[in-house]
C-alpha cells in the first residue's frame, strides 16, 4: 500500500490562505490580489530552482482536497462549475473533494475526475486508496483539510513549502491539531521558499 502524504504551501506564520475567499479571489486576503501569487511564487517565478518539488506535486495515484480548494464556500457550488482548476486540471488522476453537498462526479480533460465525498475524511481516504491501487495518496489542502487528517492520525508524511513572508491571519495549519511526533527527512531552502519533509511518527 502506498503512503499518505500532505503537501501544502504556507506562509512563514503558518497560513495557507487569507480570509474572505471568493470565486474571484481563491486565496482571499492574501496580501495581494487574492490569486495566491505570493504564496506560490516559488512555483511560477522560480520554477528552475524548485524543479524537484514541482515535479513531485502531482505524482500520486489519487488526491484528496477540501471543498474550498475545489471552489469557494459561496456563489458557485450549486451550478455546473468546474472549480478553480480550469478544463484540464493538473492532477490527471482521481480527486476526492470533501463536502457536505452531494454532487455527481465531474470528469475533466487530461484524466482528472473530481468525486464529491459527503461521508467525511476517512471515507474520502478509503476511496482515494482504492483508486490509487498500490500508489500514493496526496492530501492537498487547504489547511483545514490537512488539519483533519493530521488529527485523525491518517498521515504518513508531511511536506511543507514555507514561503518567505507572513500573512497575519487566515486559515492556519496545525490549528486544533494535537501534538505531533515528527522526524525530519529533508530540508531545502531556495530563494522564495523552504521545502521541509517530515515523517509523522505514531
From TrEMBL:
It comes from the Bacteria. Coiled coil: none annotated. Residues 3-188 form the Bacterial bifunctional deaminase-reductase C-terminal domain. This is Dihydrofolate reductase family protein. The lineage of its organism: Bacteria, Bacillati, Actinomycetota, Actinomycetes, Kitasatosporales.
